[in-house]
Structures are given as structure tokens and as C-alpha cells.
Amino acid sequence: MAGIDTALADVRRRIAVASGRSGRTDDVILVAVTKGVGIDLVRAAIAAGVTDFGENRIQEAAPKIHAMSGIEGSFLQGLYHEARWHMVGHLQRNKARKALELFDVIQSVDSLRLAADLSARATAPLEVFLQVNVSGYQQKYGFPPDKVETAATEIATLPRLNLTGLMTIAPMTDDPEAVRPAFRRLRELRDRLNSLDIPGLHLRHLSMGMSNDFEVAIEEGATIVRIGRAIFGQRA
Ligand SMILES: *Cc1c(COP(=O)(O)O)cnc(C)c1O
Questions:
Q1: Quick check: pTM over 0.90?
Q2: What is the SS3 assignment for 124?
């Protein structure tokens, strides 16, 4: 698994360089996105110190997450149990209960009804982010920016949900600079929401930036980057 150790080291170095360049001293959390990636590579990533993982489909995530929590008798067992799993893809409401069993963070809350279902079914505090469609491109999921204040105000009142951040998926492009305005808009939106002193609401996180554009996202304030291909290679 030397391949992923090298790739991870390179990604971490690039994260550090981008942070330094933008004068940041806070830590950027690396979420390794493991869709299309087998269990052995997930284990290798955990052994290499990755603590946070992302998946975008319940069906694919369930066996992987169960394989990690079921492991016994390995010196890595503790690390497997401590791994945090982030749901980063669209979540259908009829899968809310399953998602609650599997994930520590739901980054992709994209409707009030989904938030209400998660709140009603949760048996413990759950960290959630609102997915926002800031890019202006046609995207299927995510709140439009002008709906986020109302949604955040309402979700902040829901029992057991801790709304701690905003997430966005930038449009695919070969030019990372083309997505900078979208990342900047998400940061401005978070800062504005925090300045409104909405009861129960403080947004710490900006989850933005993927393999193609994470350095630009960090320069624009990402606290979480979600990276798949740059760590695990091109998906089949
Ligand atoms: C696949 C995926 C990622 C990672 O994308 P890469 O280009 O492989 O880094 C990040 N976020 C979401 C929501 C994804 O679906």
C-alpha cells in the first residue's frame, strides 16, 4: 500500500502549503472520500493516520463501515472504531434511519424535511451541515443561497441536531481558479449567518474543495476538504 502512503503525504503537504500561503493557523480536516474504494485501502488509510472518511451512498457505505467497526483483535482496532464517517451525498428521506446508524456527520442536509426526519429519529446528538448550491450552475441538490438563512434558523431549533457548517460541491472544471468565487461566496454566507446571532447557531465549518480544487478552497477558508482521487487514484 506504499501508493496511498505517498499520495497521502503529498496531499497533506499540499494542504499545509495552501494553509501557510493564506496565513492560516487552524487545522484543515482531511476527509478521505472512499466511494469506489475497497476495504483494504480504507484500512491502509486508517493505518496512515486518516481519521475522517466520506461516502456518498448508503448502500456502499454500510458494509464498509460495518467492516471497520466489526474488526477485533487488531492493534488498529481502536483506530477503526474511532474513525469518523461523513455522509457527503444526497440522502433520501427513507434512508434517514440507516444514515443515523452509520454516520457521525451528515454534510448533505439539503431540505427542511430531511432535517426534520433526522431530528425526529436521532437518539443522540448529530452533527449536520447544510449543503448549499453557491455555484450558480444547474445542480440537483443544495439550498440556494437566499434560502439558507431561513433553513438554518429553523434547523437550529430542532432537537438533537447540531448545525455546525456549510458544505458545497463546486462545478467540475479543469481550472481551479474558476471555482474560487463559489468558495468565497460560501465563506461570506457563513460569516454573515454567524453575524446575525441566530439563537443556537454558530457555524464553524466550511466543507469545500475536492481533488481538483482543494488548495483554492483552503485559501478561501475551507475547514474541511473532501478528497478521493488524489489519495486513492482514479475511480474505475
Ligand atoms: C466524490 C466526492 C468527493 C471527492 O472527489 P474527488 O474528486 O475524488 O476528490 C468529494 N465530495 C463529494 C460530495 C463527492 O461525491
A1: yes
A2: coil
CA of 1 to the centre of ligand 1 (A): 21
Residue whose CA is closest, atom 6 of ligand 1?
228
pLDDT in tens, the chain (236 residues): 457 999 999 999 999 999 999 999 899 999 999 999 999 999 999 999 999 999 999 999 999 998 887 666 666 777 777 899 999 999 999 999 999 999 999 999 999 999 999 999 999 999 999 999 998 666 789 999 999 999 999 999 999 999 999 999 988 888 888 899 999 999 999 999 999 999 989 999 999 999 999 999 999 999 999 999 999 998 87
Where does residue 23 fall: left (phi above 0), alpha (psi -120 to 50 degrees), or beta otherwise? left
φ and ψ at residue 85, rounded to 5 degrees: -110, 130
Best probe residue, ligand 1, of 55, 110, 224, 226 (max atoms within 8 Å of C-beta): 226
User: Residue 201 is placed in which grid cell?
Assistant: 447557531
